[in-house]
């Protein structure tokens, strides 16, 4: 045996650290910190000489060069894991665990553990590019912005501002998202959207219409308090891996039932105590089936329902139809199992319901969301630690980008598009309302919902009369999108070909760049990642985290702020747009953008999160409790980590943020809350306000409407406003000062006074089990358009065809056509799609990262063992998956497995770069093609949209599999 | 890893049952482990083997059995030959050298033989460096020098396989006709080729006697097997998984031991063991008396064909 | 002296591959070398479990026993390291290793498969601690910096643990008692034996077959 030479055996400082730890009888916790098992990591080594801690002179880390540690946040999903970067000479040389983060506590998933590669960037877009006759040409930034600006202005002159589609990204920082929304407003269109449309728009619509806000109610950490977990249509083990840390702790510590409802036996299901396999697209029958048992046995929380829920009786009527037999007939789940699950949820309270894309991405997405919300209301689980609707959001900043208005139907903070909303933001932006109006084609279009990203190509290909705006889309500005991620790609490709201008601003070229059909008029602007700029992002639990720039933008890339500024300047409205935002050179300062947001986004309580407070939280992460997420000590004492919104009022009043929404057991200044009064005070003679329920310490011991000057005056509290506050309110209200509300009062005086009285500014109402403004006020089951069960279609038809979002929406007519045809015979299997842990979204970014790409080297379709046997398909063999529209097909490898049930096929959606069996590698700009390419599943997905948000149906269609 | 049913049950019900450990010392850390194969996303079949405790047997073979076996065989063969030599001495040409030579192996024959032979010896030596270097050479020359030697041995072993296989094929083509077993071989074997007969009575034999045929076929089959297993060892995992690789190695190594021992015997006979034998491969011709005594039938044939000189006029 | 071990609690492991990626990142491990990997048993069926596997740093390591050039060493705290200067790339360690830990840059053997590479427990190699040479051959040496393996430090669910075996055993046992189930520490019987005899190759340990 060899011996390590020199000072080998003592193993440097570690052995000493350990010897010390064990010898001195330091607590196990103390040792664990060193062992990397509990928390804290490096802390214990602090006692060692500094030189021992640093990599003296190894590897990529250079000797005697200063090593700087920077803190940012993982850009790959909404969990929001802290990333610790070690930087030397401006190069990111090492990644260390972020022990102090209360969210991830040092951990990561594969993607988070790989982010350093993003700034090495061998496959990144390195300089601006232009497609000329099918060839990529390198151009300068000046030329790129100049030409793009000219073309945009020309289109604007010819076809009006609505002919341009502004696609933003959930990968933006909050500041970037807000700025991009503002850019679209100044350009004069509401055709501005981002990934939430294809991700959680139905969640937002569903829960906001139920209890007020479109967000996850509790936090990942809080699940450690849950006594039962129900995960419906979510696969956190792959999509939100670090959340599983909290979920498994909850499961283990509380011996909590862990129930997974999913058509597929996922990696999450592998840890379930109960796995319920359902037919895709039947979540409402499942929810109602559970409620059937709950009502039947009187397990509901009757007092909670009386005080805090409106319209539960209408739900009862619908639920009565879903007897165990009918549920089994429609969903395939046996009655005994349904009862067991219902009982587990009802008897182990607080129980939490967790959901994700399996619920939201359906033609009944909003109704699905509402059904699950109602289930939680019936059990009295909302507004309770350990309970809640824990809706795991998608991208790293899909919550923030939604909050700050990257959306076709609203301005930032869900103010909507009505005149009042525009006027509010004109005040915030300090621009004249008439100027703003003049930017739009008309006041009507200014107040009309825009075209959503799920349908942009329909709006390109539409004839002028078919679309409710002056011109079809002619240009697309695409910031931070994969391109292979909308359904119906064959039609998307046609739309892409018909665009006269396509601009991609992205660190990677994306699928859009690789599509053969375009030969001219495409520009790629190298955007940098969030590791090369700074700004805040909001994770799923509404915590806002400030990411610090790790390295300067690599190659010629620029951050989103700069690109937006350059465009605004070229388009001639930079002066107005950046009136109160400092621009350093050509880079707007993100802190300033956030301050402007703080001033204007009152409606969601995004006002308390000043850049200073956010940075302080990042700096003092260690002070926050790992379960409650509350700082027990230090300068942030009393705050919840990341000031999860609402954090009401001015930063100076130090509202701690709200860890659990609608939690009446706490004072509002302690993070407590109530359901939002958003839909009036009564309906058909029945009060919509809470009945005898209010948050702790409230001066009003009952329900109350939202606060306006009128309400303040009635209560006599208006006298408590300061002179300055009153001056601002008067300036806003003019002669209608009573109408100034907590949402529009830029002085935040109304909010301040309400809080002082322990009241929540948004009023105290009941949650709505019955949402009369939605197409289905009480959710009803509707078969998918491409239903594998034509015999059920007549009983559970899709919604009537309709118009919305400036376009036609087909539903029932198409569904009946499909049911009456012989499609079912030609396409006998159900196709569903979803995620792999290693890749994110369209995957161009992660498939370019060798550390991740190695782990999933080819696109595949999961096929059940029996089906594979029947079809003569071996594991690993090539197969064609055919879709029922456009003669679509995809060539992929078969993964023969029991994960999917017989008759179901699952495909991940992260692949592109192949098209119907052919490689598109040559079409990427040189040196930017991702390492792994594969066939996009959306090449075979089909038509189908949720009526409320136009969410695409990605999870149920039909297909046929054949050996290739 | 054992996914014991009770463990799964316990997890499903989450309620303490009879199998639930109540204190830490009841927790089983060590569980019986057998071969475990699972699924892995990497496109590398062999990595899907999670645990292969069978490696233990291979380790035992490689670290002990192989050395004992090869070492034992070689030493036993040397000892046997030594004893035999003491007992029997060099087998003389009974009638003494006649001085007249009968051509036995042409240039091509000898080229084939020596190609094979030299390659074999090189391969054996380089192979044995790997087998015995650690206990025998490292203590003598130290680690770095031995690594140098081992690297060199390994590539020599790999490259010399080419002439070895080439020679083997040539031998096969040239000599296969004369090595087809026949009835006479049976008699030869029964009398052990007259080996023990100090009187020099040799059973009748053609060009090759049964013993030589044995060598021939051992070399052909053994060599082929060595080549096959050797090449498969050289491109690991192309046709088999880890278990298969272990078996291939065992076959290769055991055959190496057997062949080396056998060839030592062959070399003995070809050199000091038998007077006049070396000439066959050395000069290509043998003394007439040697031919008559050892390969009488072949000698007759050669004469009939006029390839051997006519018999001298009988001295009697 | 701590005896360094790995323990993968398969009830916790969710096959997220963070451990695998962290390792790649920390040591810039090239494509094709998998110092750590995830294997899923009973895929798609109730009872599905994943295990993260790398070199277990066995007591009495089989790799070391079969290595023809004797290039392994075991540190006082049980970490099994090897010398890439001495390794001849024969692949024997892979045949002997119960866990498939040794990795090779090339698949063929003609000449050599290249220097073997395997998990170092983030403890570098026989070179002096934290020298550029050490980094270049074996990756970084976290142990010498007082840190533990990055794969375990970053494990998403704290399934993978690294550190003093006694402590790991203790944590694991505590978990099992708390939750009421656990099917044993995968690989422990094979790597460490039922009677933990300490490190056979460590200075002073029982010698292994071969030398
Ligand atoms: N690794 C990774 N993580 C990610 C992402 C990523 O791309 N990669 N993306 C992020 C984003 S943008 C999002 S939105 C989230 C999404 O996260 P998830 O929603 O958890 O991920 P999916 O795999 O799309 O879908 C979840 C499950 O829904 C199931 N499902 C399909 N149809 C139905 C149905 O009709 N009913 C029910 N109950 N279940 C069904 C699928 O089988 C799948 O297991 O993940 C985020 N995290
Ligand atoms: N069939 C099917 N289709 C689906 C889904 C499904 O489950 N099944 N899921 C849907 C869901 S939930 C979603 S969210 C979408 C995801 O789909 P996409 O959002 O289209 O996919 P990503 O690859 O995440 O796109 C993000 C892009 O942003 C770029 N980027 C990263 N950082 C920055 C930055 O700082 N600035 C800028 N400008 N760009 C940046 C990345 O390089 C990448 O190209 O896919 C949807 N499509
Ligand atoms: C260096 C030592 C060697 C010597 C001196 C030697 C000598 C001889 C001699 C003299 C013969 C001819 C016997 C006859 O006339 O029939 C012979 C034949 C043969 N030798 Fe060798 N040989 C040696 C090594 C080898 C090796 C290493 C191999 C094979 C791997 C080999 C394979 C054969 C074969 C197959 C024959 C023909 C069959 C036989 O005659 O036994 N020899 N050798
Ligand atoms: C075509 C012919 C042959 C080929 C391709 C071949 C190839 C190999 C290979 C690849 C190894 C593994 C060693 C390593 O990878 O470092 C090996 C080992 C070995 N070979 Fe061969 N070989 C051949 C013929 C022979 C012959 C003729 C002998 C001698 C009799 C021999 C004796 C050995 C020995 C002793 C070992 C070492 C076994 C050990 O110590 O584990 N080989 N050979
Ligand atoms: S992808 Fe999500 S879970 Fe994974 S490290 Fe990043 S933020 Fe954490
Ligand atoms: S796991 Fe394999 S490589 Fe590691 S010490 Fe054990 S035998 Fe050697
Ligand atoms: S590959 Fe290297 S380390 Fe492994 S047994 Fe061979 S020489 Fe030893
Ligand atoms: S201990 Fe270090 S070298 Fe070993 S697998 Fe973990 S990260 Fe890789
Ligand atoms: S990081 Fe942890 S949970 Fe993820 S695969 Fe590795 S061991 Fe399993
Ligand atoms: Mo998403």
Keywords for this structure?
heterotrimer, A: 964 residues, alpha/beta, Rossmann fold, Dimethylsulfoxide Reductase, domain 2, seven-stranded mixed beta sheet, six-stranded mixed beta barrel, 34 helices, C: Alpha-Beta Plaits, two-stranded antiparallel sheet, 7 helices, disordered C terminus, binds protoporphyrin IX containing FE, binds molybdenum atom, membrane (chain B), metal-binding (chain B), transport (chain B)
Q: What is the CATH C level class of the largest domain in chain A, in words? A: Alpha Beta
Total count of strands of chain C: 6
| Oligomeric status | heterotrimer
Number of strands of chain A: 33
Mean pLDDT of chain C, to the nearest integer, reads: 88
What overall form of chain C do the CA principal axes indicate?
globular
Strand order of the largest sheet of chain A: 5-4-16-15-14-6-7
Strand order of the largest sheet of chain C: 1-6
CATH topology tier name of the largest domain in chain A: Rossmann fold
Q: Biggest interface, and residues per chain?
A: A-C, 85 and 84 residues
Please give the alpha-carbon distance between the first and last residues of chain C.
25 Å
* Count of structural domains of chain A: 5
Described by strand count, sense and barrel closure, the largest sheet of chain A is:
7 strands, mixed
Q: Give me the strand/helix succession of chain C.
A: EHEEHEEHHHEHH
Largest sheet of chain C: 2 strands, antiparallel
Which regions of chain A have little confidence, pLDDT < 50, spanning 5+ residues?
3-59
The geometry of chain A reads as globular
CATH architecture of chain C: 2-Layer Sandwich
Please state roughly what percent of the residues of chain A sit in beta strands, choosing from under 5%, 5-15%, 15-25%, 25-35%, 35-45% or over 45%: 5-15%
